[in-house]
Design goal:
The chain has 157 residues and is mostly beta strands. Helix content is 4%, strand content 33%.
Length: 157
């Protein structure tokens, strides 16, 4: 197999940011559980039919708080399709959601938006599970992943 056909290696650490770069973070310990969620909250947050995220251990997620960067972080909390409140953390400058917390389903985890990870589109981020498939568009095909019609309580495992 040629090196061009191999899956690129996940960087360590993974660096990420919002669209404007004012909200930056580092993620250590790999991708956790890469998921795609089709719930209405994720659809509205992403502005599309789904949100691609990595569910990771909160202790591996570090926000860059230097030079006033933490001051741009805002939080918005609302109930989701499962009735559980979820907090989304976004940049007050560009509006980009960077991560989410679901303290009832996964209190020790953060849900990091895959699109904010530098280089993630280069092939090392691939979903392992789909959530809320009951809301998934019929024309959208994602092969080789576990599926759940609703929310999995132990999505991080």
């Amino acid at each position: 197999m040629s090196s061009s056909a191999q899956t690129p290696k996940v960087p360590e650490p993974i660096h990420g940011s919002c669209l404007c770069g004012a909200f930056r973070y580092q993620l250590r310990g790999g991708l956790g559980k890469p998921v795609i969620c089709y719930c209405s909250s994720c659809q509205m947050t992403s502005g599309g039919f789904f949100e691609a995220d990595s569910v990771v251990d909160e202790k591996n997620f570090t926000i860059d708080r230097s030079d006033g960067h933490a001051e741009v972080i805002k939080e918005y909390t609302r109930s989701t399709d499962s009735g559980v409140p979820v907090s989304r953390f976004f940049c007050s400058v560009c509006g980009c959601t960077v991560y989410t917390k679901n303290d009832e389903h996964a209190p020790e985890m953060v849900i990091v938006a895959a699109g904010t990870m530098k280089g993630g589109v280069e092939g090392w981020w691939k979903p392992e599970m789909e959530l809320y498939c009951e809301r998934k568009p019929e024309w959208l095909a994602v092969e080789g992943v576990a599926r759940s019609e609703r929310m999995e309580r132990d999505v991080e495992r």
